[in-house]
Design goal:
Layout (H helix, E strand, L loop, with lengths): L3 E2 L5 E2 L9 H17 L1 E5 L5 E4 L15 E5 L6 E5 L5 E7 L7 E5 L7 E3 L6 E6 L9 E3 L26 E3 L5 E4 L9 E5 L9 E5 L17 E2 L2 E2 L5 E7 L4 E2 L6 E6 L6 E7 L5 E7 L11 E8 L6 E11 L13 E6 L8 E2 L17 E8 L12 E11 L7
Parallel strand pairs: 3-5, 4-6, 5-7, 6-8
Antiparallel strand pairs: 1-2, 7-10, 8-9, 10-11, 12-13, 14-15, 16-17, 18-28, 19-22, 20-21, 21-28, 22-27, 23-26, 23-28, 24-25, 24-27
């Protein structure tokens, strides 16, 4: 009786056969089994669309399909198929080492059973097994191990990444940018995100690294930072409007408080009148917000002409801060002045330009009481407005360096 062979080529000798050659043939079988156990081979699959057939070599070593580890090589210019005989039952570690942007399919030579395919950009390694589970339509199955590659596109489920390194962005499922990253050389500060348990305490985003590190969130262009639909307050330039009705004429050379009726039942003007011939003064005081950065301030004067003249009126503002349990008998800081022309009509509302930086005297600090003095410098030859300059109020600009006054 003649010898038989396994689907992978191992010779099954019949009792009494091959007298005197058993040693050689058995050694060959062991070599084949060693290939099957862990042998490595490279298989060229170069070419256009088509198939590479892996055949059995009965009783001989060297057959690609009788190796455990197979690397597919060569330049492919079309989708390629690699086939094995329909009765092979084993598992493989297969690397798609081919070049070219085409698919590679590993399948049985015939039948409608499942197969394993490398996508056009997948040059990774797969562990697959040939089940030989049906005489006509056997299946080849991807074990699902070793499918994360440097260049492949894979979906990870329930995987733990320890200290992953991410490039310039994270993309959504459509491949569009979701989050972009910019690396800073020798960076020492970063964001730390902490989750939270039940209760009122929410998750925390913290700046960590060096001591006293802020977090910068920058909307693009005129975009607004929001929480839900409401804008989030951002530290920066703020304003306070002080109407003339909240001011008082100074004891010496004080401006006169007046109420000017335009037309009955229409707006009345609550003003302080500053003479055209004499420098006159008015004052107001504010406990400045604790969010103030304690720096310089600027201001605008709102006023109304007392006659139709179009000459220039010169307004000035100066300030000084006074601490708790300290005397208010102090000198104001250096004034800044703004020149504005009359509009040529009585009862018009005039708005000056914004002043230059005004330094508050007395070394400003939190919880100090700040006095402001406003005057018309009528004695200056450049003040040419011939009527009373009626002050409506002052808009004070100051800069904050915290989001609230806590």
């Amino acid at each position: 009786m003649s010898s038989n062979y396994t689907p992978l080529g191992v010779q099954l000798m019949t009792t009494g056969e091959k007298a005197g050659t058993w040693g050689t043939l058995t050694n060959t079988n062991w070599d084949i089994i060693e290939q099957i156990s862990g042998g490595y081979v490279e298989q060229d699959i170069a070419g256009g669309a088509g198939a590479t057939t892996l055949s059995v070599s009965d009783g001989a070593t060297g057959a690609t399909l009788a190796h455990r580890i197979i690397k597919l090589t060569g330049s492919i210019t079309g989708n390629r198929t690699v086939t094995i005989p329909i009765d092979v039952q084993t598992f493989y570690i297969v690397t798609n080492g081919s070049s070219g942007g085409y698919t590679v399919e590993f399948k049985y030579v015939s039948g409608s059973g499942s197969s394993v395919t490398w996508a056009t950009t997948d040059k990774g390694t797969k562990i697959i097994y040939a089940a030989a589970d049906d005489g006509t339509n056997p299946n080849i199955v991807d074990v699902g191990m070793g499918n994360v590659t440097l260049t492949g596109t894979e979906t990870l489920t329930n995987k733990t990444l320890t200290s992953p390194k991410i490039g310039t962005n994270i993309l959504d499922t459509n491949g569009n940018e979701l989050i972009n990253f910019t690396a800073t050389g020798s960076a020492v500060n970063e964001l730390t995100i902490a989750n939270a348990g039940t209760g009122v305490v929410g998750p925390v985003i913290s700046a960590t690294g060096e001591t006293n590190v802020g977090i910068n969130i920058n909307p693009a262009g005129t975009g607004v930072l929001k929480s839900g639909s409401a804008a989030i307050k951002i530290a920066g330039l703020e304003t306070i409007f002080i109407p003339a009705s909240a001011m008082y004429g100074s004891e010496t050379n004080g401006a006169d408080a007046q109420q000017v009726e335009t037309t009955a039942t229409r707006p009345d003007l609550k003003v302080l009148d500053f003479d055209a011939g004499t420098a006159e003064y008015a004052q107001f005081a504010i406990a400045m917000p604790k969010s103030w950065n304690l720096g310089t301030v600027t201001w605008q004067a709102f006023w109304s002409p007392g006659n139709t003249n179009t000459g220039n009126a010169i307004f000035g503002v100066q300030g000084v801060s006074v601490a708790d349990d300290a005397t208010a008998d102090v000198v104001f800081g250096t004034a800044t002045e703004v020149t504005d022309a009359g509009g040529g009509a009585v009862e018009d509302v005039m708005v000056t330009s914004v002043s230059g930086a005004t330094t508050i005297g007395g070394t400003p600090a939190d919880d100090k009481y700040t006095f402001f003095q406003i005057y018309r410098d009528a004695a200056d030859g450049s003040d040419t407005f011939t009527g009373d300059a009626r002050l409506l109020g002052i808009k004070l600009f100051y800069t904050t360096d915290s989001a609230n006054d806590a």
